[in-house]
Structures are given as C-alpha cells and as structure tokens.
Design goal:
By secondary structure, the protein is mainly alpha-helical. 59% of the residues lie in helices and 6% in strands. It has 14 helices and 6 strands. Helix 1 crosses helix 4, helix 2 runs parallel beside helix 4 and helix 12 crosses helix 13. The longest helix is centred in the N-terminal third of the chain and has 26 residues. It starts with a helix and ends with a helix.
Length: 318
Amino acid sequence: MRWKQPVKLGLLAMALGCTAIGSTLMTSTTLAAPVPASKAVYHQFQTYRTEAVKSTESLIKARKYLMNHIDKASPWQATLMTLQLENMQNVKLADVDHQMYTEQFQQAISQAHEQLGYEQKITYSRLLKEIKDPKAKKLLQEASDLGFKLETSEGLYYPIINYEIYQKFKPFVKADIAAYIDIMATESNQMTTSDGGIIISWNELIQRTLEKEAFLNNFPNSNRTSAVKQWISVDYLFYGSDNTPAYDWFTDDEEIRTIDPEVKKAYEKALAKREPNTESVILDTMEKILLVLNQNNDELTPEVRAIIENVQQQFAPE
C-alpha cells in the first residue's frame, strides 16, 4: 500500500518547516569526535544540503557523504544531519513519485517485472538489466542513488525512503532518533498494508503499534513525535482494513459483526505478555474491548465502538 496521503503531507510539511532539532533530544553515550573534523564534516554536508534544493546530484552526494563521514561528527551534528537528510529525501520523494506516475514508466517497470516473474522480489539491479526504455532506466537509477526503495501495490510502482540504510546512523545519533530509525526501518522493510489488506500478522501489528506508543511515551518532545503519531494506526489495530477487517459478518443478520477469532487471540496474547506496571493506552484499550466482547458474544457493540473512538482521539495526529 502506498504511504497514506495524510502521512505524505505531514512529512512534507515537516520537511519544509523543520531544519532544527528540538532542545529536548535525549543524551547519547556516543563519544564526540574531535572538534575540527566534526566541524568540517558538518559544514561540507551543509554545503551539499544548500545545493540540493536545486540539484538532485547534490542530494545524492549529501547522502553518500553522510554515510561515509557521520562517524566523525558529534552526536548533536550527526542527529541534525540525519534529520536534514530525511527532510530532503521527503521533499524529493514527492517529485520522484510524480515522475514515476506516468504510463510510460509504469509500463516499462511492469514489463520488466513480468519478464523477471511476478513472484520474484523486485530489485534495482534486476530491473535495470531488463528495462529497455532509457528514460525509465535513468529515473530508476536516480531513485536508487537517492536512497529510495521501489514498492508495488494495486498494480502501481512507487518509491519510498529506504530506512534500513539509516541503521548505519544509529550509533551516532541521539536516543530518540535511533528509536525512530528502528520504527521507520521496520515499516520500510515490510509494509503494514498492501492492496487494501494488512499483510503482516496481527501479532506483528500489535507489536509495531506498541513500539510507536512507547516512543511517544519515552520521547514526548522529540523532533519526530508528530511523524510517529502519523504512523500509529489504531484504526488498523482495532478495525482492520478494507480487505482485512477485524470484525466480520458471521451470522444471518448483516447488522451483527463479530470479531475475527485470530484478532481476539492476538489481543489476548499481547495482554498475557504484558509486564507488570506497564503503562499502555493500547493494551488498556484491548483489555476493555475483550471485557465487553466476552459479555456480548464477541459482537461489535456501540460500547466497543465508543472505546475505540476514545483511543482514536488520543492518538489523532495534531
């Protein structure tokens, strides 16, 4: 599934408006690099960043430069440059996505994918060997150099940021951004949804949601708190998606919806694993829902809806 439009817009707005780190970023144990080397790396990256506004090549250079020199920067500088790189990639992502959303490009990729076999995982190296269209090949190579992954959903091919690459930055950035990188890498490595369906297990969906909630609890003033809020999809967790509903019709009465047994089992498993004194609105909500379900033949009642509505409001993006 493509990034949700509110998420795209939220990240784009954040990218355009945010160039500094919040003052409350957590302390890192990484030792600072010597001042001269640290300052030189920071200033070189800023030069590339300034030029990247008008030059794709400069953004490519900025990314490669940071990957090769972040170990020479101080924790504060490393964190700032990491966030600035993500900001630049998000702005460029919208442009590349627009360029890919053409019949010519989609047809070229689809034909190459068909030649490789649709059951095969698509990679840049495989596609570039198969594609004959020079414009499509150039755009695909550019997307690779920019640090994007190619995804497909509902017959369309589109780019996303490959956050797995950011794992290299984790030892050098502040604690909240290291946690943010883990969250985003998990999502970019395996999307939560595709073609209108949830494509990870309910157990994995719960785990991802709890990790995001933990981030919001641990780092309420992080520079990326709003971004994480955009991704904490309580709707998926408590209602499912169009093609993977949490509640379905199992009776002759179409007005009655009952919870999918696998969903209920996943809720119960998560609660059984809960550590004592763990504060979690998500787990509290599951517990309340199960209590009502057990009293009402697992039916989606107005009371269950009210419980879900309350948690939706608590985690609504600001």
